Amino acid sequence: MTTKIAALAMAGAMSLAFSAPAVAEGSLAIYAWADSISPEMVTKFEKETGIKITVDAFSSNEDLLTKLQAGSSGYDIVTPSQHFVKIMIDSGLLEDFGASSMAAYSQVLPDWQKPWWDATGNHSIPLAFGNAGYTVNRDLYKGPVDSWKIYFEPPAELRGKIASLAQPDEVIPAAENYLGIKYCSEDPQEMKRVLDLLLAQKPFVAAYSSDNIENRIGSGEVAAHFWWDGNTMRLRRNDKANVEYAMPKEGLVGWLDSYVVPKGAANIENAKKFIDFMTQIDNATAQYNYYGHSSPVKIDESKALYNKENAPELFPTVPVKMGQACSPAAQELVTKVWTQLLQ
């Protein structure tokens, strides 16, 4: 991104009538979850349009939010999860790019049109949805995986061999599911129960990390890891790892990631072209087959690689509760819990 920013700065010093539009016209900068956008689709789009794409990766919603809050991110498309879309809209960090009037919007499944995080439907187009839970390496752990108790209050064979994410975004809601506490609680006593649970678990946690999870759990470095449905499925299918995605009876934490456009993006029209392209049925199907998370837009089921039989991770048999955008008071408690946990 340093090179791109430097190029834009140089263009700004030249004639605005000639050089600046030329810089922006043929490019598109995307900031997305690691390995979430099909390279095949990027290449296909570049060949069809002549627009050159750069894709950078982030590993947490918190990191993405911090970058946008800093201003002048240099990106034209980013892909936050639903509750962060709401936060970004409310904070004035996103463009209203008229999403609901685009061809892409007609491809969105009814369940995901004008959701609570984007009530007008004009700030986002959904990319993928799924859930967060925990994954076990069955070479190391043979026991049950039907409750969050296994993860948060691990049996002897898992102690010192579990890993968590590095951010509270989904871990705390999972703990709330286990404890029967509503998401985004503003009750300090309820959040103290969450903190007490996580502090009791901490001596048994080998790592708090959102990176390199597939290697950590697949190699057996740890026996259980907080993770996501489709990632587990891909590791099991593609790498033949002996892993299983848990279905805790208390429920999984749901998420949906969307294409959004940061405020002040240089290439809004190119962003819209890419979003329309990615939601065309054949392209959406190829993206689904690559990413391995559920599709919130129409796909060709006859060409889809995953179904209930070969990808049970994508078809949960327990409740899934979508993560929420917390009030400032609730978010302050979340931050306090996580800070005290990791200090």
How would you describe this structure to a colleague?
This protein has 343 residues and is α/β, with parallel strands linked by helices. It contains 13 helices and ten strands. It has helices at 2-12, 19-25, 39-49, 61-70, 82-90, 149-152, 168-179, 188-201, 213-218, 229-238, 268-279, 281-291, 328-342, and strands spanning 27-33, 52-58, 77-78, 125-137, 162-164, 205-208, 224-228, 243-245, 252-259, 320-322. Strands 4, 5, 6, 7, 8, 9 and 10 form a seven-stranded mixed beta sheet that branches. It has a three-stranded parallel beta sheet with strand order 2-1-3. Residues 1-24 have low confidence and may be disordered.
Compressed to H and E, one letter per element, the order equals HHEHEHEHEHEHHEHEHEEHHEH
What is the CA-based Rg, rounded? 21 Å
Our count of helices gives 13
| Poorly predicted runs of 5 or more residues | 1-24
Strand content: 15-25%
Number of strands: 10
Q: Look at the helices and sheets and give the structural class.
A: alpha/beta
Percent of residues in helical segments?
Answer: 25-40%
Span between termini: 32 Å
> Based on CA inertia axes, which overall geometry fits?
globular
Q: Report the average pLDDT across residues.
A: 93
Largest beta sheet, briefly? 7 strands, mixed
